[in-house]
Amino acid sequence: MISRFYLATKNHNKVSEIRSILKDTGILVYPAEEGIIFPEETGNSFEENALRKARYLKKFVGMEPVVGEDSGLIVEKLGNLPGIMSARFAGELANDRKNIEKLLDLLSPYKKMEERKARFIAVVALVDCGEEKIFSGEVNGFITFTPRGTNGFGYDPVFEIPELGKTFAELTMEEKNRISHRAIAFRKLADYMLKR
Hints:
Layout: E1 4-7, H1 12-21, E2 28-31, H2 46-61, E3 66-75, E4 81-82, H3 96-107, E5 117-128, E6 131-143, E7 159-161, E8 166-167, H4 173-179, H5 181-195
Helix pairs in contact: 4-5
């Protein structure tokens, strides 16, 4: 049984969210040490990027298990963009606000919600003692016309869950962590880790 891992990210929001997702499992999540500079995400898929991050961090933590995660938004009408470029969608100086502005601008010709279908995908890669395993999660929704809500990060304010009529940013962390793409992927990881 594995009861802890190092997470290959510099994103403190992700660390907090994943700790919250796993809080009832007993699995501890450690952030990457300060000062580690991760290589650019040059993979052609979420899987490649997640593995690339995990393999890189593994060099620094010895025998400890490492988890890499890559996730993003896929919008049908935009040819599945922003995809693996989700975090850098607005260019080199991209941030959440600029990424959302670019997304809404590109979707402005589409006035019907059914034309604004999107899905969030998360891929988690476990690297431990020569073993590599991949777990994934996916959630379907729509891109709203304007941002709504103040919780979460990334594209959460414009990603609406149709069954709830709310964006991820309008949910509490506990609500989001019951249904999110990241929660689905990390629960699969936790199930695997706890059965070993």
